[in-house]
What we know:
Blueprint: H1 6-16, E1 23-25, H2 32-45, E2 47-52, H3 58-69, E3 72-77, E4 80-84
Amino acid sequence: MGALSGRDRRQLRALAHDMRPVVHVGAAGVTVSVLRALDQALLDHELVKVRLHDPADKRALARELAESAGAELAGLVGHTAILYRRHPERPRISLGGDPAGSADADLR
Protein backbone atom coordinates (compact mmCIF):
# COMPACT_ATOMS: atom_id res chain seq x y z
CA MET A 1 0.00 0.00 0.00
CA GLY A 2 1.36 3.43 -0.92
CA ALA A 3 2.10 6.13 1.59
CA LEU A 4 -0.69 8.58 2.32
CA SER A 5 -0.18 12.24 1.54
CA GLY A 6 -0.60 14.82 4.28
CA ARG A 7 -3.87 15.86 2.66
CA ASP A 8 -5.16 12.27 2.68
CA ARG A 9 -4.21 11.84 6.35
CA ARG A 10 -6.01 15.06 7.25
CA GLN A 11 -9.13 13.92 5.36
CA LEU A 12 -9.09 10.51 7.09
CA ARG A 13 -8.63 12.07 10.55
CA ALA A 14 -11.60 14.35 9.85
CA LEU A 15 -13.74 11.38 8.80
CA ALA A 16 -12.68 9.45 11.92
CA HIS A 17 -13.34 12.34 14.32
CA ASP A 18 -16.77 11.20 15.55
CA MET A 19 -16.01 7.48 15.35
CA ARG A 20 -15.54 5.29 18.41
CA PRO A 21 -12.67 2.79 18.67
CA VAL A 22 -13.79 -0.62 17.39
CA VAL A 23 -10.63 -2.51 18.34
CA HIS A 24 -8.90 -2.36 21.72
CA VAL A 25 -5.32 -3.45 22.37
CA GLY A 26 -5.18 -4.51 26.01
CA ALA A 27 -2.34 -5.11 28.43
CA ALA A 28 -1.41 -8.33 26.56
CA GLY A 29 -0.45 -6.20 23.53
CA VAL A 30 -0.88 -7.20 19.91
CA THR A 31 -2.26 -10.73 19.90
CA VAL A 32 -3.56 -12.95 17.11
CA SER A 33 -7.15 -12.19 18.15
CA VAL A 34 -6.46 -8.42 18.08
CA LEU A 35 -5.02 -8.72 14.57
CA ARG A 36 -7.98 -10.85 13.47
CA ALA A 37 -10.44 -8.27 14.85
CA LEU A 38 -8.51 -5.42 13.23
CA ASP A 39 -8.43 -7.19 9.86
CA GLN A 40 -12.21 -7.74 9.98
CA ALA A 41 -12.88 -4.15 11.10
CA LEU A 42 -10.78 -2.76 8.24
CA LEU A 43 -12.57 -5.02 5.77
CA ASP A 44 -15.95 -3.87 7.09
CA HIS A 45 -15.21 -0.15 7.49
CA GLU A 46 -11.92 0.77 5.71
CA LEU A 47 -11.25 3.37 8.43
CA VAL A 48 -11.08 2.39 12.10
CA LYS A 49 -9.95 3.69 15.43
CA VAL A 50 -7.88 1.41 17.67
CA ARG A 51 -7.57 2.14 21.39
CA LEU A 52 -4.13 1.36 22.82
CA HIS A 53 -4.02 0.42 26.52
CA ASP A 54 -1.11 2.27 28.15
CA PRO A 55 1.63 1.32 25.66
CA ALA A 56 5.30 1.95 26.45
CA ASP A 57 5.79 3.39 22.93
CA LYS A 58 2.45 4.23 21.33
CA ARG A 59 3.95 5.37 18.02
CA ALA A 60 5.84 2.10 17.55
CA LEU A 61 2.77 0.06 18.54
CA ALA A 62 0.55 2.01 16.11
CA ARG A 63 3.08 1.46 13.29
CA GLU A 64 3.29 -2.25 14.16
CA LEU A 65 -0.50 -2.58 14.01
CA ALA A 66 -0.67 -0.79 10.65
CA GLU A 67 2.12 -2.89 9.17
CA SER A 68 0.66 -6.16 10.47
CA ALA A 69 -2.76 -5.32 9.02
CA GLY A 70 -1.47 -4.00 5.69
CA ALA A 71 -2.98 -0.63 6.58
CA GLU A 72 -1.83 2.97 6.67
CA LEU A 73 -1.51 4.92 9.90
CA ALA A 74 -3.61 8.04 9.30
CA GLY A 75 -3.07 9.51 12.75
CA LEU A 76 -2.45 9.02 16.43
CA VAL A 77 -4.48 11.04 18.91
CA GLY A 78 -3.67 10.32 22.53
CA HIS A 79 -3.76 6.54 22.86
CA THR A 80 -5.99 6.09 19.81
CA ALA A 81 -4.60 5.12 16.41
CA ILE A 82 -6.52 5.82 13.20
CA LEU A 83 -5.91 3.15 10.56
CA TYR A 84 -7.02 3.04 6.93
CA ARG A 85 -7.00 0.18 4.43
CA ARG A 86 -8.81 0.55 1.13
CA HIS A 87 -11.38 -2.18 0.51
CA PRO A 88 -10.06 -4.45 -2.27
CA GLU A 89 -13.36 -4.66 -4.16
CA ARG A 90 -15.76 -1.94 -2.97
CA PRO A 91 -13.89 1.13 -1.67
CA ARG A 92 -16.15 3.62 0.10
CA ILE A 93 -13.65 6.39 0.83
CA SER A 94 -12.25 8.53 -1.96
CA LEU A 95 -8.84 10.08 -1.32
CA GLY A 96 -7.22 12.85 -3.33
CA GLY A 97 -7.83 12.26 -7.03
CA ASP A 98 -9.21 8.76 -6.50
CA PRO A 99 -12.62 8.55 -8.24
CA ALA A 100 -13.59 5.24 -6.56
CA GLY A 101 -15.73 5.29 -3.49
CA SER A 102 -17.28 8.17 -1.63
CA ALA A 103 -15.87 10.16 1.27
CA ASP A 104 -19.32 10.84 2.66
CA ALA A 105 -20.21 7.18 3.20
CA ASP A 106 -21.66 6.33 6.59
CA LEU A 107 -18.59 5.05 8.42
CA ARG A 108 -20.02 4.59 11.92
